[in-house]
Amino acid sequence: MFLRSETLHRSSSDDLLLFVTTSMRCVVVAVLAVYALIPSVHCETKTAWCYHQPSCNDSIWPVIAPTYCSGIRQSPINIVSTSAKPNSNLTPLTFQNFRSTSALKRIKNTGSTVKVSFDSSVRISGGDLSEPYDCFEFRLHWGNGSSVPGSEHTVDGNRYAMELHIVCIKSSHKGNMALAIEDPTGLAVLGFFIEEMSNNGQPASWHTLTSYLSMIKNNGDSVAMEPGISLDDLLVGVDRTKYYRYLGSLTTPTCDEAVVWTVFKDSIKVSKDLIDLFSTTVQFSDSSFMINVYRGIQPPQEVTTQSGSSLTTCYSLGLLALSLALGRS
Ligand SMILES: *[C@@H]1O[C@H](CO)[C@@H](O)[C@H](O)[C@H]1NC(C)=O
Ligand SMILES: *[C@@H]1O[C@H](CO)[C@@H](O)[C@H](O)[C@H]1NC(C)=O
C-alpha cells in the first residue's frame, strides 16, 4: 500500500531536497543557538537558488549545490532526434488513474514554479521501467509568454513554449524521497512539451488549470482544486507511445542524479492567451513576475527511443507500394 505521507507532500525537488541539504545547516545553527542559550531557532528551509538573479541563477548552481549540479548526468539536455538509438524494450507505458477527474488535488506557487499535487492513485508502469512508479505531482517550466519559449529539454535545438513534468517515485521506496534520490533510478519523470496554438482559451482543460493562477499569485500560495480535469485531459493530443528515454537528474538544485527521463515526442497544444497567463500572473518571492523558469541545457547523454522511426515507416510503406505496383503489373 502506498502511503501518502507528509514526506511525500514535501517531496518536491525544491522543497524536500532543499530541506535535506539545509537540515545539516539547521543542526549547526541549532547547536550554536543552544550554546548561546537562545531559546528558539528559526530554520530557514530555502537555500539561495533562483532562476532570475545573477547571484543565484542556474549558472552558479554547480557552485552553490556542487554535489550533483556539477555532476555527469545532468538534465535537461538537447535531444538530437537522429542520434536517438532504437530500443525495442521501450514499449507503451501503462498510465493508471490518468483518467481520474479527482486525482489533481492542490495547486501551489512554490516560488520557482507552479506545482499540482495528486492523490495517491496515480501510477505508471511498463515502458522498460524496472517496477511501477507512484506519481505525486507535476511542475511546469516556461519562458516569458508565448514569445520567449521556456521548455527545459530542447529537440534538435528547438525550444518549446513550456514543459510539464510529471514526477513519480519508485513504488518500493513508498514515498520516501530521501531513499529515492540515493537510487540512480529512484524517480521517473514524464516530460511533455507545450506548444502554442492559435485559438483562444483552448483546450478547455488548460483553461480550467490556468483559471487557478490568479489565486496563487504569491510565493507559497496554494489552493485546493475542484474535481473536473484529469491528467488525460491535460495531456490531450499526445501519442504517448512515442518518447525518448535517458538517465538524468532533477532540473533544480540539488540536481540529484536519480531520474529515468521519458520525454514525449508529441507536444500538447495550448492557446497563446493561456500560455501568456503563466508569465503575467504568478510571481517570484520578490514579487516580480515568474518568468524564464527553466534550467539551461546540460552536456549530452545517450538517448534511446522506439525502434521503427517515421523514416523507416515511410520507407517500408514505399516498399509496400512498390511491391503492390509490381505485383499488379
Ligand atoms: C546568470 O548569472 C550570471 C552571473 O552569475 C550571468 O552572467 C548570466 O547572464 C545570468 N543568466 C541569466 C539567464 O540571467
Ligand atoms: C517579458 O515580457 C514582457 C512583455 O513582453 C516584457 O515587458 C518584459 O520586459 C519581459 N521580461 C524579460 C526579463 O525579458
From TrEMBL:
One Gene Ontology term, aspect cellular component: plasma membrane
Catalytic reaction annotation: hydrogencarbonate + H(+) = CO2 + H2O
Documented EC number(s): 4.2.1.1
Residue span, Alpha-carbonic anhydrase domain: 47-309
One MF term in the entry's GO annotations: carbonate dehydratase activity
Cofactor(s), by name: Zn(2+)
Class in the EC hierarchy, top level: lyase
Keywords assigned by UniProt, alphabetized: Glycoprotein, Lyase, Metal-binding, Zinc
Family: Belongs to the alpha-carbonic anhydrase family.
Known role: Reversible hydration of carbon dioxide.
Protein name: Carbonic anhydrase
UniProt organism field: Anabas testudineus
